[in-house]
Amino acid sequence: MVWTAIGGSSYIIGQIILSFICSESAVNILLIVGISILSLCTAFFTINIHRYFFINKNIDIVKQRYPEFGLPKSDRYTEQKKN
Fold first, then answer.
1. Domain locations in the chain?
2. Is the keyword Transmembrane in the record (predicted)?
3. pLDDT digit string (tens) for 45-77?
C-alpha cells in the first residue's frame, strides 16, 4: 500500500510540474490544488471535532468500552507488558 501511495503521489507531483512548465494554466491548477487541500482539511477537522464532542458527551460509555481510556501511558496495556 505504501508503494502505491508513493507511485500515485509522484505521478501527481510530476503532472503538476509538467503543467507549470508546458502550460499557461498554472493559476487554474493552483486553484484546483488549493480547493482540494481545503476540502481534505475540512473533512479531517470535521471528523475529529465530532469525535471529540462524542467522547466528551459519552465519557462513561467510552470508558466502559475502552477501560484504558484516560489513563497515563505507563498504566495502559498492562497485560501485554507482563507477557
1. 2-73
2. yes
3. 999 999 999 999 999 999 899 888 888 888 877
For the record, the C-alpha cell of 14 comes out as 510530476
Reading the block at residue 59, the C-alpha cell is: 465519557
- The SS3 of residue 9 is helix
CB 15 within 8 A of CB 22: no
- Neighbouring residues of 76: CB distance < 8 A, sequence distance ≥ 6: 68
The CA-atom distances, in angstroms, between 35 and each of 30, 41, 61 are 8, 10, 38
Name which of 45, 26, 24 is nearest 34 in CA terms: 26
Distances from the Cα of 57 to the Cα of 8, 53, 54, 67, angstroms: 40, 6, 5, 17
Cell numbers describing residue 53: 464532542
